[in-house]
Each structure stands twice: as C-alpha cells, then as structure tokens.
UniProtKB/TrEMBL annotation:
SMART domains: Aldolase_II (SM01007). The keyword Ion transport does not apply. Residues 18-201 form the Class II aldolase/adducin N-terminal domain. It is an enzyme of class 5 (isomerase). Its cofactor is Zn(2+). This is L-ribulose-5-phosphate 4-epimerase. Pfam families: Aldolase_II. Its EC number is 5.1.3.4. Residues 232-251 are annotated as: Disordered. The lineage of its organism: Bacteria, Bacillati, Actinomycetota, Actinomycetes, Micromonosporales. Gene3D superfamilies: Class II aldolase/adducin N-terminal domain. It catalyses: L-ribulose 5-phosphate = D-xylulose 5-phosphate. Keywords: Metal-binding, Zinc. It comes from Plantactinospora alkalitolerans. SUPFAM superfamilies: AraD/HMP-PK domain-like.
Length: 251
C-alpha cells in the first residue's frame, strides 16, 4: 500500500504515530532500555501497515513525525513522514509477526536486564508467582537464537508464541519480544515480563521455587483475562488460547 491514503486510513496512521512515539517513553520510564536499544511498533488499524521507530535515534528525539510507516513486507512507505531515515533494525521481525499473527496490534523489544539474563542462559521463567499466572498463563518461553536484520527473529517469535498463552518470548542470547492486542498492551507485557524475571530470579537466589499447580494457573489466568479490570480492556480483543491446548503443551 502506498500513499495517498483515504481519510480514514490517514487518521489511523496519524493516531498510530502518536501512540507509538509516546509509548517509547514508557520503555525509558520503566527502565527497560539503555541508550537507543529496543523498539515499539503498532499496526495501523484497518490497513496493511505498521509504524515503528527509526534506528539508533535517541529516545528523547522520537516524535510522531519521525516514526516510520512500513508495509507488512517491512518496506518503508516512500514519501511519508520519516521515510528518509532507516527504520529500526528489528523492522523485518515486527513485519513477520504482523503478517503471521493477525490478532497482534503491537510488538515490543527491550533489553531489560533480568529478562535478558534469563535469555542469556536460554532458560524459561517458571510460573511460580500468581502475577505470572495472571499475565502470562504459565512460564515465559525461550525462543531460538536468531540473527538480527532478517525474518529469523520474527520466525522465532511466531513459532514460539503461536498457541502459547504467553505474550512474551525470551529470544535466546538476545532478550524479550512481546506482543499485544494493541501497542500499549505489548508495552505492558514488556513491563510485566521484566518484573517477573526480576522477582523470580531474586526468589531463586534465596532458595527453592515452589511450583503453582496447573489447575490453579488455569484458574488465575482465566480470571485475570476475563474478569479482572474493565470489560472494554483492549487485551480482551485477543482470544486467548484455550486451556486444553495449553495443557497439551505442558504435558
Ligand atoms: O537489539 C536490537 C537489535 O535486535 C535493538 O534493540 C537495537 O538495540 C535497537 O535497534 P534500533 O531499533 O534502534 O535499530
């Protein structure tokens, strides 16, 4: 798709630019990145397009106008604001996720310390606290080692998270990638995965971890996804994998 766009699509692009630019501020506010590491993208509702940050640009300099509009092949849409700059080095990975997971509206990558430490060990985060059962419905899985810049990271994310309750994957030796129904939802998952990575690490440093029975994990997850919060919460737009599929995976 190339411009000029219909008024509806242009409005959606403009709103996505604002949201994605602002959400980068959450990565720095929550201490999930240093310098120019990490990135947020958002699908443009109603169009085969997404918005992502330019590569290697200071967080303080990110604005709606310098966000970059891409098609779902990961190509920059020429002639649009920001298109003169190189997009994020993870653009191909984000594009792959949007192509293969139509329910996903936002993708986030950070280098948050504790999550990266689990990724460096290639170790999934076990589900030993209720906050994890609520948010991720089980352990946070590890994805394969993948080279930056092509489809490999995207393939690893999609292969690992398809049919999985978790909206976060720890790409081995690299770090967390999270998905969500919206860009905000994906940023929330990035904040939460660092929080649980830190807490579980501290717990394990202090002694043995106590597992939560699968049946309790299922109940906590179901309640958090379907009862907690408000009925119009964006994450409700994404149907969660059913419990039986999860049980097979954990068997
Ligand atoms: O780890 C990586 C590359 O996967 C990134 O997080 C970079 O650290 C930030 O890259 P840009 O989005 O600025 O290109």
């Amino acid at each position: 798709m190339s411009g000029p766009f219909s008024q509806d699509v242009q409005s959606a692009i403009d709103a996505t630019r604002v949201a994605v630019a602002q959400l980068h501020g959450e990565l720095t506010r929550n201490g999930l990145v240093v310098w120019t590491g990490g990135n947020v993208s958002g699908r443009v509702p109603g169009a085969d397009l997404f918005v992502i940050k330019p590569s290697g640009v200071s967080y303080a300099a990110l604005t709606p106008e310098n966000m970059i509009l891409c098609d779902l092949a990961g190509e920059v849409v020429p002639g649009t604001p920001g298109s003169e700059r190189a997009p994020s080095s993870d653009t191909a990975a984000h594009a792959y996720v949007y192509r293969h997971m139509p329910e996903v509206g936002g993708v986030v990558h950070t280098h948050s310390t504790y999550a990266v430490a689990w990724a460096a060990r290639g170790e999934e985060i076990p589900c030993v606290i209720t906050a994890m059962a609520d948010e991720f419905g089980g352990p946070v899985p590890v994805g394969p080692f993948a080279i930056i810049g092509d489809d490999s990271i995207g393939r690893g994310i999609v292969e690992t998270l398809t049919g999985h309750r978790s909206r976060a994957v720890l790409m081995q030796n690299h770090g967390p990638f999270t998905i969500g129904a919206t860009p905000t939802d994906a940023v929330k998952a990035a904040v939460m995965v660092e929080d649980v990575a830190r807490t579980v690490q501290i717990a394990r440093d202090g002694g043995s971890l106590l597992p939560i029975p699968q049946e309790a994990i299922d109940r906590l997850y179901d309640r958090y996804q379907n009862v907690y919060g408000q009925a119009d919460d964006a994450r409700r737009a994404t149907p969660a994998p059913d419990a039986s599929a999860q049980e097979e995976m954990y068997a």
